[in-house]
Design brief:
heterodimer; A: about 290 residues; mainly alpha; two-stranded antiparallel sheet; 2 strands; about 70% helix; B: about 425 residues; alpha/beta; Rossmann fold; seven-stranded mixed sheet; five-stranded parallel sheet; 16 helices; 15 strands; about 20% strand
Chain lengths: ~290, ~425
């Protein structure tokens, strides 16, 4: 087994992990800040892919789809928060969980009715078709682009949370919403924005996955499971955890695929089991945190 | 039908038992009488899940076969009814639904199932209950002596037939062949078929990768497949797995290095990922609508399907629904009713031509002997219209030679 093959394999794993990271991030932010376990996250990922495809065909450019779909679906997420989720804050964790679980069914069926249950082709943007010669092998341009874009989004998100006033409010709001209210911050608006951000990230994941996988109403269910595994490994609510765990899962799947391909899907669950045994709160999770 | 409906029907019938037979018949409500006369065909198929597109086409075509018979007055004056059930692509679910169809709905025969693993579960149930089952899913084991019963018929092609036909078209002596295979019955059987065919041709196997069934991402298998440097990559999986695997192989530039070959090239998956990705991919098929220029029965089938479905064309797996139900109904017609032994007898003697030319069920194992198509996906610029997907590379006429022999399958000869 030569080195270049292993490097190519690592790169495949990172590209795979990049989509996982962006999807798990939305899930973990919403949980961390709002305490809502969003079971509709996979369905919103799927809706994002359809919205991206629809907007791309409407405008004739993938880039508009990539830009507008997360914003539009993010806004749709805010509507969901405002109309449905908001009413359940302060109740047990099961209530929003059941609500979003039901919501995911409604969304999937809705897409089935509008677009049918067959897959729809999602062409790779023309600028990114083909492979790039890395010297040691060829790698799809599109997947390299996904890695780069996810890195940029992560950086932007980190800057926004750590360096801006809004970020400060958000972080503080997650820790102690009551004090924030006393200080005169409209915490309801912060939560609205956070839920929108989480859903927007799911949609971004969906648009990015579109040209790699076929777009179909069920595409979100597998992603939801993967995103939860990543979130649990990283520690529920931890942003750093989602990033590290997403890449870890992607790379593990990829390296296992090299030696024992039939084990490739199981490895992420094995990884989760091991992490839970050693660190029940996840790699970056806080012990005993209440939702 | 709700449970209460069927119980009330029985009580009504019991209440009427005292009356004379003629009076009872007159007094019985229309529904009750129809239920006694109707021929019911159970049809389990995966309406939800990754094979849903193919399953829905099967249902449309099966309904067409039923409709055509009913339009001509049914079988011996009895109307035919199709009872479609979602097997959810799950063997346990399929077994339960099949059992319900037999015990509760009192079906006279079962046709259907799409996944090779699921069909074996259906077969277990029908075999134990002595009900005729016409399988329309690819399988190499259902005809083998251990799974076979006199009630089991296999209308679909099997992996042995398709892989041999595809290999004949694409492989040459000394070529290097790699395999990407779904890790379940269908994939294993296709791999076995390809390896057998490539050994006969003299092509070399350079490696095989088994992937988990239903995987969304195949990228992690690509670097290793490319490092094997094959001339041909055989991708043996089904439904959405086929679409995703081919798409991602093409993304990785596989087609520049090697030819992509699949045992069964799927109409719906070609539509789902588009012409650019599938361009040049070669695969086997039981049916393609473009056959209508070569075959009268294909033209008639296309026309009937178009008329019933707003101008849409029938697909490969859809055609199985038509020929599976159609052959069963033809045998019932010949047997003059639904008596199981007589219908089995009639099926064994049946010569039918419903979609693409002559077919018959081989006596020893009830495998349908039929032609195998080899198709190549067309370039976008070469397509005459949206439905012009494939070029027909070969149409191998059906013969016993393309099947494994009866003694090889474990049957007494």
């Amino acid at each position: 087994m030569d080195l270049s093959l292993i490097i190519m394999q690592l790169l495949s794993g990172i590209a795979l992990g990049a989509v996982l990271v962006i999807t798990a991030l939305g899930l973990t932010i919403v949980f961390g800040m709002l305490g809502v376990v969003n079971f509709a996250h996979g369905a919103l990922f799927m809706i994002g892919a359809y919205a991206g495809l629809y907007l791309a065909s409407l405008t004739g450019s993938f880039w508009w789809g990539l830009l507008l779909a997360p914003i539009l679906i993010g806004a749709f997420g805010m509507l969901i928060e405002f109309v449905l989720i908001r009413r359940l804050y302060g109740r047990s964790i099961d209530d929003p969980l059941l609500l979003t679980f039901g919501l995911s069914y409604v969304l999937v069926e809705g897409v089935r009715i509008v677009f049918g249950s067959d897959g729809i082709p999602f062409p790779t943007p023309p600028q990114l078709i083909g492979v790039l010669d890395l010297g040691i092998g060829f790698f799809p341009r599109y997947r390299l682009f996904v890695i780069a874009l996810v890195a940029v989004v992560l950086l932007a998100l980190w800057l926004a949370l750590e360096k801006t006033r809004v970020g400060l409010i958000v972080r503080a709001g997650a820790r102690d919403p009551t004090i924030m209210q006393v200080l005169g911050v409209d915490i309801g608006r912060v939560w609205l924005a956070i839920f929108g951000l989480g859903v927007g990230l799911a949609a971004l994941g969906g648009v990015l996955a579109g040209p790699m996988r076929s777009v179909n109403p069920e595409m979100g269910s597998l992603v939801l499971a993967e995103a939860f595994v990543v979130t649990v490994i990283g520690g529920l609510g931890s942003i750093v955890g989602a990033v590290v765990a997403g890449l870890m899962v992607g790379i593990s799947i990829s390296l296992v695929a090299l030696f024992a391909p039939e084990m490739a899907t199981i490895v992420m669950f094995a990884l989760m089991a091991v992490v839970l045994l050693i660190r029940p709160q996840g790699l970056f999770g806080v012990r005993g945190r209440t939702a | 039908m709700p449970k209460s409906g069927s119980t009330s029907k029985i009580t009504r019938r019991t209440a009427l038992a005292g009356l004379s037979a003629g009076a009872a018949l007159l007094a019985m409500p229309r529904l009750g009488r129809a239920a006694d006369e109707t021929i019911r065909i159970g049809f389990p198929t995966p309406l939800t899940g990754p094979f849903a597109a193919e399953a829905r086409d099967q249902v449309k075509c099966a309904e067409l076969a039923v409709k055509l018979v009913n339009d001509k007055g049914g079988i011996g004056g009895r109307k035919v009814e199709l009872l479609v059930r979602d097997d959810k692509l799950n063997a346990g679910e399929a077994a339960t639904r099949t059992l319900e169809l037999i015990e509760k709905d009192k079906v006279h025969a079962v046709v259907g199932a799409l996944s090779s693993a699921v069909q074996l579960a259906v077969n277990e149930v029908t075999r134990a209950r002595g009900v005729i089952y016409v399988s329309i899913s690819q399988s190499d084991t259902i005809n083998e002596a251990k799974d076979f019963s006199k009630y089991t018929f296999h209308e679909a092609l099997n992996p042995h037939m398709t892989t041999a036909a595809v290999a004949r078209q694409t492989l040459k002596k000394g070529m290097k062949v790699a395999h990407l295979v779904a890790d379940y019955a269908y994939g294993h059987e296709m791999l076995r078929g390809f390896k057998r065919a490539q050994a006969a041709i003299g092509a070399d196997n350079v490696g095989e990768i088994l992937h988990p069934f239903g995987a969304a991402d195949y990228s992690t298998f690509m670097p290793r497949l490319m490092s094997m440097r094959p001339d041909v990559l055989c991708i043996s999986n089904f439904g959405r797995d086929q679409a995703n695997a081919i798409k991602q192989a093409v993304d990785f530039g596989v087609k520049q290095q090697m030819k992509i070959v699949v045992p069964v090239i799927l109409h719906n998956q070609r539509l789902a990922v588009g012409p650019d990705v599938f361009e040049g991919v070669v695969g086997g098929a039981n049916y393609y609508w473009g056959l209508e220029t070569q075959s009268k029965s294909a033209a008639a089938f296309n026309a009937a399907f178009k008329a019933a479905n707003g101008g849409a064309i029938p697909t490969d797996y859809g055609a199985y629904g038509y020929s599976g139900v159609g052959s069963l109904l033809a045998a019932m017609q010949a047997a003059g009713g639904t008596d199981t032994d007589k219908v089995v007898d009639a099926l064994e003697k049946l010569q039918y031509d419903l979609t693409k030319g002559p077919q018959h069920y081989r006596k020893c194992d009830h495998q349908s002997v039929q032609s195998v198509l080899v198709l190549e996906s067309k370039k976008k610029s070469a397509m005459a219209g949206d439905n012009d997907l494939f070029a027909i590379l070969a149409n191998d006429t059906g013969s016993d030679d393309m099947l494994r022999s009866c003694s090889e399958l474990g049957h007494a000869t």
